[in-house]
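Session log. Operator J.P. requested a structure for one protein chain; no other inputs attached. Running the standard single-chain path with token output.
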Amino acid sequence: MTTESRPEPPADLLFTGGVVYRGPGRDRVSGSVAGAAPEALEVAVRDGIIVAIDADLSAWRGPDTEVVDLAGGMLHAGFVDAHIHPIQGGLERLSSDLSEGASLDDYARIITDYARTNPPRGCDAARAWITGGGWAMSAFAGGTPSAAALDAIEAIRPVFLYNRDHHGAWANSAALALAGITAETPDPADGRIERLADGSPQGTLHEGAAALVAAVAPTPSPDDEYAALLEAQRYAHSLGITGWHDAIVGDYFGASDTALVYRRALAEGRVTVDVVGALWWDRARGTEQVAELVAKREAHARDLGPASRFRLSAVKIMADGVVENGTASMLEPYLGEFGEGEHPRGIAFVGGQALTDAVIALDAAGFSAHIHVIGDRATRDALDAFEAASIANDWPSRPTTDARRHHLAHLQFVHPDDVARFAALGVTANMQALWACYEPQMRELTVPVVGPERTATQYPFASILRTVGATDVRPRLCAGSDWPVSTPDPWQAIHVAVNRTLPVDDPEHDPEPLLAHEALTLAEALDAYTAGSAFINGRGPGDAHVTGLIEVGAVADLAATDRDPFAGPAPSIHATRTVGTWVAGRRVHG
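Structure written below.
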């Protein structure tokens, strides 16, 4: 190639020496892409945009071009986590973080170490508390740790620790006393106080009952939340994540409005991830709150501009709870004590006509609805709501690039009759794939209360993806972690999506796949975590700024791995490691 034929200006960044996974094509974003595979290509980036992809891009090299040798690894579009709680995850990493433990002994060590290195200071009552989270229900009989066990670790200072799914909390006697929780305290409408035989609080607080202690526990300061956001961003970049969908922004159980944390980081030039924030839907209210949500969205858009890296374009509705504590909304009654209790089919936090009214109103106001559904009744209620919104708001007349990107998160139980409705309505399934496996200890908590026959509809991601529908331009799947509920490492989730089991060296590995016919190909899972999630965030094909794909004209949000995961056996996918991450062509990790 002669000097005269060299592109001017040359590339700022050139990737070579490995393979490139480009992602799904525009004409098959939502369909099965089992044949897709990485290719031996080079990628050139200029001004933060991908400008060339070919087998040999040596002509794009200039004296100032940074050349990245992939060393046999793979370049792919940066991950976008479609369901994450980054500030909460960052706070837990900076507090008493139990997520690395798996037993009471582990938790005792972590809490004791934290208490020793973070002693109370003077008369500061907030410093007396020990807060954090990340404990696993599977570490305790019945999934319910006791105040007595926590008192044995720390009896003087109040201790309040959320579990990994944040649908329950563990409190010691000092914390329960400060909250005034006694045998006479009634259960809140949206939760339950676990009790001893005499009716006194046992130490585990389910769902809304945790708010009773949260109301008296210290809340993180703005500086705490700011530090947590920056730590979450650093950690996410180390895992190849370049964007996320923050699943709760706003007043949640008394928490501060985290939109203000993002605003501070933006003002100081510290935000490198691309973020959609989902405003919190107050389940104690109705559609009268839509006007307030619109006002908040418009105020941020006016102040930050349409090209901001932080947008409030979605609203999160928590339709139900979780199976383990009997609060997931089910079509059939629970077995055992849950089925004999006050809510034999669980609790619809927002369901029926209330959910339909909410979705119709939010859709009409231009919001994307991001709905938490675990039980099959909650899933059906949500799909019914979308169907009603499609009729009321004339979805068929909308362009395929309409900015509203509705999605249902989790989907542990989906009735077979409802699987095809995702494709028919153009609603995306937001999968937390790491959960789609047997974990022997968690199975001990769930099977006795729902029965083994309900496993026939657990996490049916392959069925949803491969159902023929009328909305082929919209992704059927996106993916996220729900961190700090589970690890934000996408390769761990992709491993389970493909294998439907945890890695062999995981202590909770079960050799039996959970519904092996629902396994995705590696390409399908990777596409969900990149192109699918980018679409949910308004960065898909046809949008003003395209990410999630490696194609000319796309934003250079990219990640590099230490190997080609397509070249190895499927049981080794979890060993893949991110070695470099770039946002708009700027290195942010590695």
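Operator note: DSSP finds 17 helices and 23 strands in the chain.
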